[in-house]
Amino acid sequence: MNKSFDQSPCAKELSQVFAHIDSNKDLFVDRLLEYLRHPSISVENIGMEVVAELLVRMLSDLGFEAQMIQTPGCPVVMARWERVPGAPTVLLYGHYDVQPPDPLEAWVSPPFEPRIRDGRVYARGAGDNKGQHFAQILALESHLAVHGRLPCNVLFLLEGEEEVGSPNLAGFVRAHVDRLKSDLVVTADGPGHESGQPIITYGVRGIASFELRARAANRDVHSGNFGGVVPNPIWTLVHLLATMKNRDGEITIDGFYDDVVPPTDIERVAATSLRLEADHIKQEFGLIELDAPTDRPVADRLMFHPTFTINGFHGGYGGAGSKTVLPHEALVKCDARLVERQNPEDILAKMEAHVKKNAPGVEFVRTESTLPSKTPLDSPFSDVVQHAVYAAHGVEPLIYPTLPATLPDYVFTKLLGAPSFVIPYANYDEANHAPNENITIDCFLKGIRTGAALLDGLGRLAGS
Ligand SMILES: [Zn+2]
After folding, report:
1. For the residues 275-294, what does the mean pLDDT come to?
2. Full-prediction pTM beyond 0.90?
3. Which of 24, 38, 66, 315 is positioned for an S-S bond with 79, CB 3.0–4.6 A?
């Protein structure tokens, strides 16, 4: 990005907050350890209400109007502090649920007995996501401690089901659109870049998953006695799949690409400057060549193009030696990663129509879908967000127009209509979802600084 980040040094108000963070850093780390002692494992429904109540207390103590709101699953914590007329309102999103900690024997120290080793806090949730939203809370606290007020209006939304796919988030947001109305959304989640350089992500790919189920005879039969007479459902799926994507990597479903919005010039420049190199990927995965089309830049493929992936193909005999069997059923699981403005429902309908036309006997079963999301790089809040990250780190952020993976970010961009920025506070090797999950103390403190700088920058917009 052609942006000059080295303009003014931090304004006095922000420097004072940074100084407060610095002089309280040991205390802040101790309090993080205390918070991490509370398990909140959504998939096993362990400790969810206890941690939700803890968060309500923490935010109420800061002067927020905070409450726990029940959903059909785990409760949501919602809190608001809106006392600066004319200033923007930022919605901070995080999740207080964590992954189950097993295998327990692989942990150096127990997952819910946080320990510090080599400048890192080790515990389940240290990075994903307690350490990150706790940093956001401490950013709020630090502003309030130093200045007695926040520079802008803040809503906090902490869900308890992110680790199980956020099944109730969209419904919750739809039901509370008025109460969640905000000018922008900022999420602190995910690991940072390998280099340690900070990241800001402006979008995510969506997903549409489905299964193809083929059946022929009512049981497996002898491939000699009945081969050539009884149809083979594996061949049925092989032929069908071959009509869905060609050797050039083109997805050959009618209308599949209709709604794809090509990247803007600034998105292309940002993607190119990430220097995602084909050679690096080949080396990492031991590949001779990349998937077709081989001439398309890696960043383009990961950010601006949809995919069609066969996740698994099951059927027939795969054991030792040979078995001359003609199987009677076969199953394929697939996903398509979608880009702005493809809609999973529309894509699944097109896929299903294709299957009906080319292999009418094959059953098409929808499994999962999430819309893609994208915030324009030239959003009116882009400069503030980028400068906040720069102010906290002293390093320019890497700008990802789109994350190749899927997050339910559309609930903010499409349901609330707000620009949405994801700023990972955790380290690249946070080991999220794995044993020995951790956050470096450096990342944790920079997270608090980033949160503080963001609030300060947003407050300045009101005066400008
Ligand atoms: Zn996670």
Report:
1. 92
2. yes
3. 66
